[in-house]
Structures are given as C-alpha cells and as structure tokens.
Design brief:
Blueprint: H1 11-17, E1 26-30, H2 37-49, H3 62-69, E2 75-78, H4 87-97, E3 107-111, H5 119-131, E4 136-142, H6 150-154, E5 157-160, H7 166-176, H8 182-191, H9 196-204, H10 208-226, H11 229-239, H12 244-262, H13 268-284, H14 291-304
Parallel strand pairs: 1-4, 1-5, 2-3, 3-4
Helix pairs in contact: 2-3, 4-5, 7-8, 8-9, 10-11, 10-12, 11-14, 12-13, 13-14
The structure holds zinc ion.
Length: 305
C-alpha cells in the first residue's frame, strides 16, 4: 500500500500493510482516540476503491480524488455523529451492501466508534462479515477492541494503532505545520503523550484550548490534593456539561499536573493513588460513561482515598 507516511509512527502496522499482500475485506482499527484510526481508514478506503494500476491508492484516479475529497459514493460512514451504532443502522448497512457499488469495484463501510454497538448490533454485523457480498468491505474503528465480540474480532484483520514517540510526533508535526514556531510544536509533541490528534487539535486551535485545558487540569489537581472538599464537589458538578473528548483531555492533563507536583513536595502516596484513580476513569470513558457519572466517581473516589 502507498501513502502510509500520512500516518505518524506505527511502524508495524505500516510494515504489515506494505507487505504486498492484497487488502482484506474487513479490518478492525483499534487504538486510543487521536492515534490515527481515521487517517488510516481514509487511506484504506481510498486504496479499496482505487482503480489505478500498481500500488494503491494511486492518488490520481477519479476514485482516489473523490475519496480524498470525502465525496465518493461507494464509501459510506456510520456512527460518525458520535451516537451509539444501533442494530437498525447495522440492518440498513446490510440491505445497502446488497445493492451493487455505484462507481467503484467495491463498496466500503466505515463504522466509527464500533465499540458502541451492543450485542445484537454486533451479531447483525457478524452475519454481514460472514455472508456479505464479496465487493463489500468493512472498516471498524474502535477505541477499545476488547469491547468487540470475539466472533466479530476474529472475522477482521486487526490493526492496532499505538501512541507515537515524542520524536515521531515532533517530526510529523513539523512537516504538518511548517509555518508555526518550532517551540510551540516541540511543546505540543512533548505534552501530547503520543496522542497525535491531541497535538494537532492544540496547534490548530492556536494553543488557546491547550491553555484552557492546562489551567483546568492544574485547578483540578490542586483541588484533588488539598481540597477543600466543597470546592472539589462544585468543580465536579461543573464537569457534567463537558464533552467526552474534552473530559479525556482534562483527565490526562490532571495526571500530568499531579506528576509535576510530585517534585514540588506533594505527598507521593496520595498523588499515586489519585493518578491511579484518574487512569481508571480515563479507561472507562470510551465505554460511553456520561459526564455526570464520571464527575460523581471522580469526586467520590477522591474523597475515599
Ligand atoms: Zn487511485
């Protein structure tokens, strides 16, 4: 496969895809948010519809151009609205899959947030993976491959994306943002903890959002460590309005701030217990935990430590 340099890091995934074997009809792209699942799904879907000779995607044929512009009629997305994918949506995909492709030789379905499918939705999908028409291809994107049924997982080629190293992030971001000050890019590469999507969001947002998350994280770290409890409770109530992605960033940032605090004399045992608590909450986020619940657990857990 060509064009894989658009994906940062992830050497093993790239090696596997450029080994010259043909493309599968079903992939499970797994890895934390911001690790390149959408970038890779874009490349794979382009490669699947490409009509060029030689290595795909050629990047030049009609199909490649439409795919790159996001207007190819045979590349269909499900679940990109952030809501759970329901069994009736999977059934719609199923009936659509039996209608032959409009233009390309294949029809590609990209299922974002595939971990939000419940058991019946996944079973309906399983049937399609097993018995669907040969031209249909499926790209399942999931923050957590463990949330997928083993039967679904085993029908897919698993591509696990990992956080990138600071050096990989730096090189990639310098290429992507040639006009930004080098210092700002190095700072984003260092602070994103390997989650490139986070660094991209900061740099595209002109650093303002990053500053907001940074100060919110510092505030939360301070409240968790030294209270007062009433103020922490109030802060947590305010979190109920936050979006899931932003909450994830806030939790990551707070962990970072707590670590920084270790060197300024905070009680290490309490800091480590808090870090552990925040990590567990962070891991629960992809499972559609509501912000209200999360804020409650954050507060109750911290009080119990
Ligand atoms: Zn092409």
């Amino acid at each position: 496969m060509r064009g894989l340099e658009a994906l940062c890091g992830n050497v093993q995934v790239k090696r596997r895809l450029s080994s010259g074997r043909g493309l599968s009809h079903a992939y499970l792209l797994s890895g934390p948010a911001g690790c390149g699942k959408r970038t890779l799904a874009g490349l794979l879907s382009q490669a699947l519809v490409c009509s060029g000779a030689g290595e795909v995607p050629c990047g030049a044929c009609d199909h490649c151009r439409k795919a790159a512009a996001g207007v190819h009629p045979d590349i269909l997305r499900v679940g990109s609205d952030g809501k759970d994918i329901t069994v009736s949506q999977v059934r719609e995909v199923r009936s659509d899959a039996y209608i032959r492709p409009n233009e390309a030789g294949r029809k590609v379905y990209i299922l974002e947030n595939a971990q939000t499918m419940n058991g019946s939705a996944q079973n309906a999908l399983l049937k399609l993976l097993e018995e669907g028409p040969a031209y249909a291809a499926f790209l399942l994107l999931s923050d957590n491959a463990g949330a997928m049924l083993p039967t679904v997982r085993s029908r897919c080629e698993l591509l696990t994306l990992s956080p990138v190293t600071p050096a990989e992030a730096e090189a990639w971001l310098l290429r992507r943002f040639p006009d930004l000050p080098r210092e700002q890019i190095l700072d984003a590469a260092r602070r994103c903890e390997g989650v490139l999507g986070r660094a991209v969001a900061w740099l595209e947002g002109g650093g303002q959002e990053a500053e907001e998350v940074r100060s919110a994280g510092a505030e939360l770290a301070r409240l968790l460590l030294s209270g007062p409890e009433g103020a922490l409770l109030e802060y947590c109530v305010g979190l109920e309005k936050w979006e899931r992605d932003a909450l994830g960033e806030l939790l990551d940032e707070t962990v970072q701030q707590l670590r920084v605090g270790l060197s300024s004399g905070w009680d290490p045992r309490r800091v480590m217990a808090l870090v552990d608590h925040l990590r567990k909450l962070r891991a629960a986020l992809p499972y559609n935990v509501g912000a209200g619940h999360l804020a409650g657990w954050l507060c109750a857990g911290a009080a119990a430590l």
